[in-house]
């Protein structure tokens, strides 16, 4: 397969996955913002969304305040933001158009129609409820994946699409988990500061909603699970109260959860085996090492190291793997 074709398939899939994950993250952030809490805390929540996507500098060059309206506009439709939903859907369509003759007509029509209709579903004003738009984006991205599975041969083209999906999904799940945990930690520190409690007196594992802070904690973790479509799965798996330890166990180590880090890494390694070439050995080695780290770690190891440090190491490794994959199989990043 030509590198240009593989590159377009890969990035078409990545941009669709990125648009969906951005919609998920913003929808949960918006729903959380409707809960009563201090303005300073809300501003920090919106800031974390941009920080975890490394977009703070770009945002601050265009906006003066981290308000809900500004962040939503920036992340939904700002043409200067390479990760905004509209920008991602446009980029996915551009890649699909380049290889239009290489993909089933249903895949092209689904992708093209999504972009052509996006303007109809955008919120009309910054004050409008964006939830319907986010649901539409998630639905269209799900439809794209369903059409791909239902119409494409399971050949190299399909494998490059899947590779883009799982690399993007692993990155986004890790970033969402990191952002939500940082917000939770900031809330815990504010609470301890205002009450004079020590860290040993405040347990992050007891989230039984007995007071206002615990109620906020409870809905905070529920929002995290909903952002990766894992709330019902959590209840099926644990049938008990929601704790950070169990959330990490589910989102990092559960190999059956479609968006868990372990599931993504296992799928990436399997796909590399199907795309085996003389240049794939080094990439397989990188992925195998990361898989081994996950296989031989557990929740206690993660919290002993610090969840922030663990996720940051994972992000560095998964992005290095993505770069090496691009340089080996696709158009090298230096010339794309």
UniProtKB/TrEMBL annotation:
Pfam families: Alpha-E. It comes from the Bacteria. Residues 1-330 form the DUF403 domain. Residues 188-205 have a biased composition (Low complexity). Residues 188-207 are annotated as: Disordered. InterPro entries: ATP-dep_Glu-Cys_Ligase-2 (IPR051680), DUF403 (IPR007296). This is Uncharacterized conserved protein, Alpha-E superfamily.
């Amino acid at each position: 397969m030509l590198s240009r074709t593989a590159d377009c398939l890969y990035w078409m899939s990545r941009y669709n996955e990125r648009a969906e994950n951005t919609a998920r993250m913003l929808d949960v952030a918006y729903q959380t913002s409707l809960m009563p809490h201090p303005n300073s805390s809300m501003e920090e929540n919106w800031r974390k969304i941009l920080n975890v996507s490394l977009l703070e500098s770009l945002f601050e060059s265009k906006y003066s305040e981290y308000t809900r309206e500004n962040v939503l506009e920036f992340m939904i439709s700002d043409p200067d933001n390479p990760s905004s939903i509209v920008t991602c859907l446009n980029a996915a369509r551009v890649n699909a158009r380049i290889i239009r003759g290489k993909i089933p007509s249903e895949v092209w029509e689904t992708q093209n129609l999504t972009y052509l209709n996006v303007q109809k579903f955008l919120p009309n004003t910054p004050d409008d409820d964006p939830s319907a738009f986010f649901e539409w984006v998630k639905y269209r991205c799900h439809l794209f994946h369903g059409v791909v599975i239902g119409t494409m041969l399971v050949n190299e083209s399909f494998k490059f699409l899947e590779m883009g999906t799982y690399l993007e999904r692993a990155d986004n799940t890790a970033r969402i988990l990191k952002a939500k945990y940082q917000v939770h930690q900031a809330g815990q520190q504010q609470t301890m500061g205002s009450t004079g409690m020590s860290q040993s007196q405040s347990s992050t594992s007891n989230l039984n909603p007995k007071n206002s802070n615990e109620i906020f904690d409870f809905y905070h973790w529920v929002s995290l699970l909903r952002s990766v479509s894992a709330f019902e799965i959590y209840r099926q798996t644990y049938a008990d109260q929601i704790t950070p330890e169990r959330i990490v166990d589910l989102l990092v180590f559960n190999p059956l959860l479609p968006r868990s880090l372990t599931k993504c890494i296992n799928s990436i390694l399997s796909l590399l085996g199907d795309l085996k070439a003389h240049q794939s050995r080094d990439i397989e080695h990188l992925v195998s090492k990361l898989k081994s780290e996950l296989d031989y770690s557990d929740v206690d190891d993660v919290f002993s190291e610090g969840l922030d440090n663990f996720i940051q190491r994972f992000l560095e490794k998964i992005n290095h793997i993505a770069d090496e994959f691009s340089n080996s199989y696709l158009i090298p990043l230096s010339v794309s």
